Amino acid sequence: LRHAHDHTYCNMASTEIPRCIFGTSFLGNLFEAPTHEAKAAVVSKVVEAMPLPVFDSAGKYGAGLALEELGKCLEEAGVAPDKVLISNKLGWRRIELTTPEPMFEPGAWVDLKYDAEQDISYDGILRCYESGNQLLGKYEAQMVSVHDPDEYFASAFDEEDLAQRQKDVLGAYKALAELKAAGKVQSIGVGAKDVTAIDFICDHVQLDWAMFACSITPYVHDDFAKNLLKKLAGKGTKVINSAVFNAGFLLGGTHFDYRLITEESDPEKFAWRKKFSAICTEFDVKPAEACVQFSFLFPEIYSVALNTSKPARVESNLNLVNAVLPAAFWDKLKAEGLIKI
Contact, 21 vs 305, CB < 8 A? Predict the structure, then answer.
């Protein structure tokens, strides 16, 4: 087993990706509305801590608010456009707000002044790309992808609709490939919670990177996901792992993959977590370290995406990525049947 990469950055189609990239959903007011100053403090801390900071954002985050705030925060911090990498997950575009609350993801985003609509097709993804860059101000997204194609496929009414949606997504990737060929973006990727969507897309599109969510964690790592890692590596596609805590459940939270659960509804998950926590305590390993470092047991995973809305957590996130855990810890988890690698 490998317990740490011997390199800090991986080269991804001439794009250097650090082992830790930072999510930006908090900039879009996910569940709370921090002040601009609070957001700027986090962005500044990331910029100070990393030679080449990478921010993962999306037009869907706060109906473009995250992109807008990111651009402002970077400019206020005096960051030159070539000293930062921005990933924009495309597929949702800002529109006027004509109802009391935004119609997309009701309840998730706070204090928004705009709504967002999905726009996935060859032309639609170009509209999303242009809209995103306008919101970023003097910055441009260099890493681009289609946002949550798995959810787009899952919304199909029937087989005919699914075929049309697959055509829409592949049309969007045709547009992204043209942007890359024209030198407007550095790399093309995909991100999904249901990795069967990544499998479908990688059969039709040459991807530079793929972002897994909720699929490779100490609790969840089925054979399909592990085999897909190998398949992507064979195609030269680097993998970024995200949602490595199963939405906080593995650290003691109440939600598993964004769904509230209880000991009555999911006893096996709570039993697993109790054993996991005990073994972490035995080896003096923080559960968060174990969740992040589990990713790096797979040589195909080059980077982990982490979120924080607190400046103090930026450094601790970087420490999680650089932690070295004893081989005996992983051996014990395997022996107890908690992990299968």
Answer: yes
